[in-house]
Amino acid sequence: MKGLSILSHLTVAFSIAQKTFAFGLDDEQQQPLGIETEHERHDTKPNIIFILVDDQDLLLDSISYMPNLNKHLTQQGTFYRNHFVTTAICCPSRVSILTGRLAHNTNVTDVSPPYGGYPKFVERGFNDNYLPVWMQNAGYNTLYTGKLFNAHTVDNYNMPFPNRFNSSDFLLDPYTYSYLNSTYQRDFEPPVSYEGRYTTDILKEKALGFLKSAIDHEDPFFLTIAPVAPHSNVLSNDGPIVPGADLSFSAPISAERHKHLFENVKIPRTPNFNPDEKSKPSGVNWIKRMPKQNQSNVNYNDHFYRQRLRALQPVDELISEIIDVLNEKSILDNTYIIYTSDNGYHIGQHRLQAGKECGFEEDIRVPFIIRGPGILPDYEETAVTTHIDIAPTIFDIAGLPLRSDFDGTPMPFKHELNSSDPLRHEHVTVEFWGVAIPEGKFNTLGPENPEIILNNTYKSVRIHSSEYDLYYSVWCSNEHQLYDLKNDPYELNNLYVESKSSEDYGDLENGVILGVSLEKVINRLDALLLVLKSCQGQTCIRPWDVLHPDGNIKSLKDALEIQYDDFYHVQSKVSFSRCEYGYIPDAEGPQTGFTYRDGLAWHHWV
User: 416 Cβ partners below 8 Å, 6+ apart?
Assistant: First the structure.
């Protein structure tokens, strides 16, 4: 009897394993067993396709060069004008997307160990507690192809395997960013090199194969497609692509069929592109040291920009082919398609070389588009949305109850809410730790030795409403930035002047916002940032409730009422005791401040 019991358990386990892991295999291979479930079939529950590109800009206009994206997604769905990332680098951003948590709550804050990368993701326990696990538990077939995380390598891909995919085919380091020498790893199989083939074309074959298999399956599907485009082409001479490795960054490589495109296109010449004069000042810390780029540098960056546009063309082709398959199978009307990027990108703005990792608009605004059932076509949503809102939105689409540990909230994807809804938040938490790496061959140390900026740690808050538009940051050097984007959309005039005392703020040129002195505005922004820099769950969504537990304050404008001046004047201030490469709270100054109750400043919130 004991032997029979064990055999029965093995039979069930084997059947479940087939259902879980054989999905998406080629026709001639083993097909998954038809195990009955209590979940709805995909003809009633919507399918979801999530396209996550790498390093695509919004403000440099790259989406204008993607006709299929515009035809099939933007014109048939909702474009989110004010969508922001919360950490402007890939691995921390991707972990936030897949967990619905800010980076200070995931503590995955870098692209490689000890503070980030796939090993840190596993160490923190998220391999058993993130979006594909939740979606599979809800009855979805989960599939993924392309880039998952940095430091997910040919050596550690099975230590452990990423959970929980019916089928997967991942790009692996150190070949992730090599357009003509990629390595993919499918399910539990060994990695396979595709040297000599164009990586996005390989991805397209895998993605369409997964899609066709998913459509024939009984359950709804959640398919993630993660091209590496338009990231730089990166080669590593000594293993994984991590800071400190012997790396070579170059412009992306295009497919042969796209090499002729966009020959005369240049980076948009906005006022903050390679400016002649420093602002007052435009940046702080290492950014203010950037020299003006010479013509050779500018020409190279224009070439770099064109290569990014060319690298996006296979992604644009893939979008059209996805639509064709969905139409052919008559399920387009029951499928949501989401398109976004893990972070934005700058090239030449504020004299910066190609790259990301900053809090400027180019780095933190990204394309975000949804089409699907109930989505208004050709609609532009102006509400503030963020990457930590993506997981809650997917839950909403799938009809799942929201998790209490989500730091974000569902987007107004069906317009039950809109930008005028008083409950919709106006703030974005933006945070970063560690290094900044200029990409391309030009940098302050010369073409053969890219400079790695070590003190690029900061906490910041982005506020956007119809009445005001602000960015406030505190760096680990305790330098500050404040930009009024309503009057200074290119962030050229830092209103926070370190040499001025708070009493002098009101005397500065343009030193009044909403009729209030800069000192009072800064006091409110700093208090808000104090909450956001260590918030969890609902406090990230409704931070003003921490400062004003009576619930009377919902926005910056509310908080500017004169009766709160003394409260915000004595509030604890955001500061750093030292610069660190990861999230170490004791380096980040005060963690709590005062709450306002019954007209008094009460001591610290918990």
Answer: none
Dihedral sign (CA 33, 122, 98, 555): positive
**CA of residue 491 relative to chain centroid, distance:** 21
DSSP 292-359: PP-HHHHHHHHHHHHHHHHHTHHHHHHHHHHHHHHHHTT-GGGEEEEEEESS--BSSBTTPPBB--S-
This prediction has a pTM of 0.90
Candidates 523, 532, 598; CA nearest to 566 is 523
Pairing relation of β-strands 335-341 and 480-484?
Answer: unpaired
| CA 162 to each of CA 130, 139, 165: distance values in angstroms, whole numbers, following the listed order | 11, 18, 8
**Tens digit of pLDDT for each residue in 256-311?**
999 999 999 999 999 999 998 754 446 788 898 888 999 999 999 999 999 999 99
DSSP annotation of 448: T
Q: Rounded to an integer, what distance in angstroms lies between the CA atom of residue 230 and that of residue 313?
A: 9
Give the CA distances from residue 99 to residues 156, 320, 391, in Å, rounded to whole numbers and listed in that order: 22, 29, 7
On whether the CB atoms of residues 39 and 339 are closer than 8 A, the answer is no
Q: Of the residues 90, 91, 535, 579, which is catalytic? A: 90
Active site residue 358: no
pLDDT in tens, 488-528: 999 999 998 754 444 444 344 446 788 899 999 999 999 99
DSSP letters spanning 387-403: GGGHHHHHHHHHTPPPP
Q: What are phi and psi of 159, to 5 degrees?
A: -125, 65
> Looking at this protein, which amino acid is placed at residue 453?
I
The owner of tokens 């500065």 is 508
User: Is the preceding omega at residue 281 within 30 degrees of 0, hence cis?
Assistant: yes
* Contact (CB, 8 A) for 343 and 85: yes
